[in-house]
Amino acid sequence: MREFTIGREVEFAQFPAPIEIDHSSYYLLKNNSTYLLASRVCPHMGYPVDVSDGEIVCFLHGWNFDEKTGICKHIPYEGLTTYPVFLRNGEFIALI
After folding, report:
1. Which terms are listed as keywords in the entry (predicted)?
2. 38-58 as b/e, with b when 16 or more CB fall inside 10 Å?
3. Which residues of the chain have pLDDT under 50?
């Protein structure tokens, strides 16, 4: 796994927050005091997911994903690919 600096903690006020790393799109998710980086690609058919009314949605088939964990709300054994994120000296670091 490689470390990627996402940005300073103070730069993020709302979650999920869109992030770009190496030409790939992610969302930074917050679940209480823990953080995850979630792929913006639906695991079902590879269609892009987007935030709509505070939820992460795949508009191809209507799958909704938890905005804190990336787990599919309709099929709990499915979810967005996620990566751990931690804080170091006030900066978010993702392990991908």
Report:
1. 2Fe-2S, Iron, Iron-sulfur, Metal-binding
2. bbbbbbeeeeebebeeeebbb
3. none
